[in-house]
Specification:
Radius of gyration: 17 Å
Oligomer: single chain
Number of helices: 3
Strand content: 25-35%
Length: 149
């Protein structure tokens, strides 16, 4: 599951801008064959009195914390992954010209992740493809789907 937490001042993004950014983020992962419902994007509004950079309150800053759980990229492709994220963020944040921003990515071990209390099927497996097609976690065991959860 990719989990994106986007911290910003409440006035930074409109509802339509949030929708567009959420769709772009989801698309980044679904093109890598992850089910869309794995992708979580949470916009967290932070008032200036609660968001300080260099000891001063800010309203023009976007801080993004990304958790990668479903798949992890080898060290040798991390730079290209960051380039993909930069490209994704460009029209939504960088091109605006009125925001300062940064992000980081944590890789959480896959064995510490469950959906609906289940260990998800392996990446790109037949079971995961069914999850992606149905848009929902389905019970599975030993390579066999057991029904809807």
């Amino acid at each position: 599951m990719p989990l994106w937490r986007i911290f910003s001042h409440p006035s930074t993004f409109t509802i339509d801008q949030k929708q567009a950014l959420g769709e772009s983020i989801t698309s980044l992962y679904t093109t890598s064959h992850l089910p869309g419902f794995y992708v979580n994007v949470i916009f967290i509004p932070v008032e200036a009195e609660n968001f300080y950079i260099a000891g001063k309150p800010v309203t023009d800053y976007v801080r993004i914390a990304i958790e990668h759980i479903a798949i992890h990229r080898p060290i040798e492709v991390r730079a290209s992954m960051c380039a993909e994220i930069d490209k994704l963020l460009a029209p939504h944040i960088a091109a605006r010209g009125d925001l300062r921003w940064e992000y980081h990515i944590n890789d959480t071990p896959r064995d510490l992740w469950k959906i609906q209390g289940m260990v998800p099927p392996p990446w790109k497996s037949a079971e995961e493809k069914v999850w992606a097609e149905k848009g929902v976690a389905l019970a599975w065991e030993d390579g066999e789907l057991k029904g809807k959860m």
